[in-house]
Predict the 3D structure of the following.
Amino acid sequence: MKSLITALFLFFLINETAFAQSDERIIFQNVRIFDSKSGKLTAPQSVIIEGEKIKSISISTADTDGAKLIDGTGKTLIPGLIDVHVHMTFGALTMKEMMSPMMSEGVILDKIGGNAERMLMRGFTSVRDAGGPIFPLKTGIDNGKLSGPRIWPSGATISQTAGHGDFRTPDEKSRRFFGEPSRAERFNATFIADGRAEVLTAVRENLRFGASQIKLMAGGGTSSAYDPVDVTQYTFDEMRAAVEAAEDWGTYVMVHAYTPRAIRRAIDAGVKCIEHGQLLDEKTLRYAAKKKVWLSTQMLVENTPNMDAQRIEKRKPVLEGQSKVWPMAKKLKLKLAWGTDFLFEPELNDRQNEFILKLQPWFSNAEILKMVTHDNAELLQLSGLRSPYQGKLGVVEEGAFADLILVDGDPLTDLSLIGNPTEKFLVIIKDGKIYKNMLD
């Protein structure tokens, strides 16, 4: 069987299907716009799209000749949704499928390609991939040979030996001592890198292939077999090496970590974004706020039917902590971002929008919608010139990318509309192209 990467490249080379309806000029008429900066709705206006950008927004428009007209009466135009912690490959496959020697190209192509298209149809026009073999998928989407969201790729995760990204099976020996890369490393899923020199090389390898930011494992995890959640991973010097290499390319490091000890070390090393952090205490949250570090976290579910007993047990303290971290972080005015982090549980993907609603105990509807559009877009911009898409996202403004959703109703009054994209997302546009239109 060809490798995962080879299979993906082959698919994107031979698949010439056009998924989007391309209109040279699109006009939304009489539509209320969600201002994702203020969290308010505008009065009814007209929004004109030409090419990939929003050309103008005005009370009315006289020139409609040759344009695709969409009536927005009683509806709301919002920016495309953004999920800043996805795993486009590993979120589409179970662990059993990933580890099976019998995995076929057909399974890979159907699950990963199909997952990307369905994600766009749920209104997610942009995502940040938090680690895994991603570059062929991103290339296929950007070339128009597959439909899916814009992807900010991290490339392979970077992990110490016995770290959260060390997914070796018991019979796979250390590359350093035995010279053979593990299966996960061959699939470009992870780099197992120890010491400053290896960390520098791993970071630079990802940047060479187009990573927009770097994902480093700074603490234990729940989906890995050999590292308890409480452990701290990577020395300060190793973490600082990753930050220096990323900063030399004008971008940043995000770290997987839960505990105050691991996160404090990461912040001191210059890391700009913490992923997870559900075990954080108020003292460390205050320190993160002082240093203007982002907290990108989630609302995880207890378990799924296919989750193994060890993972369920390891997740217990994380689940207990998440309901404490969100309100504390809001009170302390941290830079907050939201993501899902579905990993080896593809059955959760169809519930992606529902997980936005899990923020309602602590945030207003406007605050939530602002977070999953404007605020998440701000986090994406930390990539600077390494961002694969140079332009404004997360806003409905003149000159911004035309990544838009027409919602049937007012999500500020009823946020459940966001949780029902199949029925309530009437039009979905990415890059000025219509991917869904229920009004035709």
